[in-house]
Amino acid sequence: MESCRVGLKVVLIYVFAVLCNGEDRHTYLVLMEGDPVAFHQQGKPHPNSEASKAMHAKHLINSHDEFLQKALDVGSYTKLYSFKHIVNGFAVHTTPTQVDRIKNASGVKLVEKDRRVKQMTTYTPEFLGLPSVWTQEGGDRNAGEGVVIGVIDSGINPIHPSFAPDHDPTDPYTSKPPHFSGICQGGPLFPETSCNGKIVSARFFSAGAEATGKLNSSADFHSPYDAVGHGSHVASIAAGNHGVPVVVDGFYYGRASGMAPRARIAVYKAIYPSIGALSDVLAAIDQAVLDGVDIITLSIGPDEPPADTVTFLGMYDIFMLAANKAGKFVVQAVGNTGPGPYTVVSYSPWAFGVAASETDRNYPGTLILGNGQKISGVGLSGPSFGQGLLQHKLVLAKDAVRADGDFPKTSEYLEECQHPEALVPEVVLGSVVICTFSDGFYNGTSTLTAVIQTAKSLGFMGFVLVSNPKYGDFIAEAIPFLVSGIMIPRTKDAQVISRYYDQQTIRDKSGCVIRYDGRASIGEGRTASYAGRAPIISRFSARGPDYKDRNRTAVDVLKPDILAPGHQIWGAWNPMSVSDPILAGQNFALQSGTSMATPHIAGIAAILKQNHTTWTPSMIASAMSTTATKYDNQGDIIMARGYEIDSLYTAAPFGFGSGHVDPSRAIDPGLVFPAGYGDYVSFLCSLPNVDPSSIHAVTGGSCTPSFGSPADLNVPSVTITALTGSRTIRRRMMNVGSKAETYVCAGLPPRGVAIDIHPQSFRVAAAGGIQVLDIKLTVTEAINDFSFGELVFTGSLNHIVRLPISVFPVSLS
Predict the structure, then answer these.
(1) Does one domain contain both 105 and 148?
(2) What average pLDDT score do residues 26-47 get?
(3) Which one has a higher pLDDT value, 770 or 379?
């Protein structure tokens, strides 16, 4: 009889599922009332004991299950996660009709539809001056010791030398730091022994991705294994071993090192080659805080701002706020959608948003024409054979197309070198072949991988990918080529090549080529050059102002927070490279993106945390911000790349935040601007046109009292998006030096604004001394855009503290 009942229940569930087939299921993120484990205060008699924490966690899980069972129809949903450590909530996969039942239910604080997330994708320790900082910490073998960096990304390649363990059994590095409790979760290509002391733990989160039905079992491994390479790259920049040789295609490029080579890496895989779901990222953040990481680095993020709420109150930002409340420094990529304004995807002042810069290292390539002209280009490849003799026939791919070919007469066949069957082998064999950046490349359907494969299969001596005047200049990144090759991204250079080719190519009356007299060779492109202006804000790096909704309504917060190297960064890779075939087989990759800038800051934060164990997240952020530089290596204000490939313009805080990070100064900043959870709640309560009840519902905090405006939050910058008349902003500074110090303040006012500072000089007591500063800003001229200035505090013990100011002066009264 019982088996019949069970069978009937299964049938009913099946019938319900069939009836609901007309309505697609989605994943929803639900925030519930009640304290999570990390902030629960009711356990007795030992509220912080492990037994009490486990009991409360179990209670939360049960409460989620009971709530769903009562609220939703049987068989209509699948609970994917219970969030229980830093927030109380869950992720559920169900239909819109079902989720409507719980949006206004008792105990529900917020419901948000799951969103997609994406990746925001050597020499930099020397560029940043880190060896001198390492020396202070006992050398590279001690830099970051005892600190755990949680890397939430695409996993890790556990056998890479950047993550090799220290095999000295007497070294305490082989054991976990006492404050950390993470485990090693094994799976395909990732045995539990992969956690080796350097990789201190590893987990994977896939329920949200699996619910979409888009995972591919051949690439989306259910383990912490990184089949992409992105997570490994990020981890190696933050905390990869020191001095690992970088060898690609048999060529030695130098040695790579993480920013904090002695820090431990805790891996949380939450994004997959096929798809990434925000619910998996949130589960990873919750677990990372529970495990005891010190720093969380997020080189991944949502595709777009949250819908129907302010940017600061989306689930992603709420989780980061909770992690900050738990004492974790959260560093976040600002995104790769620059150079336009209002493009940042790091919104909140409790997450440290990182922009990307170029260093002074580049890999210049050269195409040498038969008439001696040299054309600069991009491409990490060796020279064509006999490069100095200019003995290679120069052939335009379009002139080598088979006349009798049975293939589509589209640009990818005719001029983009995508299909070897479209070319006459006898013509291109041993030649330097000109391929053109046309429709396929512009639309994203053509690839460099295909060009290289064509060149290999037909025996090109080399290839040249030139820009197409129809589409203008294109952006070219240095990528290792297995064959000799070069990219010429500038249209003006492509036209030089075209003129030479036309002059040297003999055609019959019908236009068919009867003789190729043009010659060319490709020079060595793998030797680095260290010259030129740096840092420069990368073209792709997202820009401020910060905004609070999808209408891009500006808000009084400076974003980005800081600038760090993110262009052409060497880092660990996975030879599988399932998402980027051109890098298949490689252990290292040269990558660009705010994804690369972010772990630079995470590693530097690890060194600060090691040296100042009691510093809060806001103090770490402040130390880097106030000591950052706004000048480049030529003494000018940092420049930025614009839409045009060669365009440079003087940047401002909405491009570089407080400036380019300077680790040697950040370790001893003099003053910091502390802020805590209560300050962030007051900031939220001060946002215009935001219901205080929604703030209370999400944070549990009270909006009484509240700041007068968001600009009153105690951060190391001042941003006012609409200044009318005058306003006084207060800042509270703490001395973190070992001695009392006297500071003198000088102001560089933004255009259209006068600054009155009180007091202009002060003496602050040692080690925890506080000084309050009032900054009065008055409009002297209304202008139609933001203008920028700064305050500079010069200390008697040689500390220099900078506070950037960004103001939009609207009217005099």
Answers:
(1) no
(2) 79
(3) 770
End-of-domain residue from the set 527, 550, 566: 527
Whether 496 and 375 have beta carbons less than 8 Å apart is answered as: yes
| Dist CA 57 CA 102 (whole Å) | 22
Residues 123 and 102 in one domain: no
Spell out where 606-703 has E strands: 639-641, 648-650, 671-672
Peptide bond into 560 cis (omega under 30): yes
3-state helix/strand/coil string of 319-340: HHHHHHHCCCEEEEECCCCCCC
Question: What is the band of 4 on the pLDDT scale with cuts at 50, 70, 90?
Answer: very low
Range of the domain at 370: 364-527
CA 313 to chain CA centroid, nearest Å: 20
DSSP string, 331-375: EEE--S-TTSSS--S---TTSEEEEEEE-SEE-EEEEEETTS-EE
Q: What is the pLDDT of residue 266?
A: 98
pLDDT digits (tens, 9 = 90+) for 595-635: 999 999 999 999 999 999 999 999 999 999 999 999 999 99
Range in 197-211, 383-397, 498-512, 539-553 with the lowest mean pLDDT: 383-397
Amino acid, single-letter form, for residue 17? A
Determine which one of 114, 153, 549, 712 is catalytic. 153
Structure tokens at 583: 């890098």
Please indicate whether residue 64 is annotated as part of the active site.
no
- From CA 433, how far away is CA 430, in angstroms rounded? 9
Whether residues 101 and 127 fall in one domain:
no
C-alpha torsion sign, points 502, 508, 512, 513: negative
Total domains, the chain = 4
pLDDT of residue 8: 37
Give dist(CA 790, CA 630) in Å, integer. 11
List, in order, residues 6 or more apart from 273 with CB less than 8 Å away.
154, 216, 219, 220, 227, 228, 578, 579
The reply to whether 328 falls in a domain is yes
73-77, 124-128, 692-696: range with highest mean pLDDT: 73-77
Statement to judge: residues 160 and 194 lie in one domain: yes
> Is 494 a residue whose pLDDT tops 50?
yes
Long-range contacts (CB closer than 8 Å, 24 or more residues apart) made by 373-377: 373/496, 373/500, 374/523, 375/488, 375/493, 375/496, 375/497, 376/493, 377/464, 377/476, 377/486, 377/487, 377/488, 377/489, 377/493, 377/525
Answer with the one of 64, 88, 113 that is the final residue of a domain: 113
Position 709 in a domain: no
Segment 139-152 shows an average pLDDT of 84
Give the model's confidence band at 329: pLDDT under 50 very low, under 70 low, under 90 confident, else very high. Answer: very high
Of 78-87, 169-178, 637-646, minimum mean pLDDT range? 169-178
Residue of 595, 618, 622, 686 marked catalytic: 595
Catalytic residue chosen out of the listed positions 40, 56, 160, 230: 230
d(CA 392, CA 521): 6
Under 8 Å between Cβ of 466 and 435? yes
Whether pLDDT at 136 is above 60:
no
- 261 and 199, same domain (yes or no): yes
φ, ψ for residue 372 (rounded to 5)?
95, -10
Residues 250, 181 share a domain: yes
CATH code, domain carrying 783: 2.60.40.2310
Q: Quick check: is 230 catalytic? A: yes
Measured CA to CA, the distance from residue 653 to residue 629 in angstroms comes to 11
Q: What mean pLDDT is reported for the chain? A: 90
Q: What residues have CB less than 8 Å from 7, skipping those under 6 apart?
A: none
Percentage above 70 pLDDT, the chain:
92
Per residue in 515-540, pLDDT tens?
999 999 999 999 888 888 999 999 99
Cα end-to-end span (Å), the chain: 83
Give me 339's structure tokens.
């150079």
Q: Which residues contact 802 (CB under 8 A, 6 or more apart)?
A: 626, 627, 628, 630, 658, 659, 790, 791, 792, 793
Residue 279 annotated to the active site: no
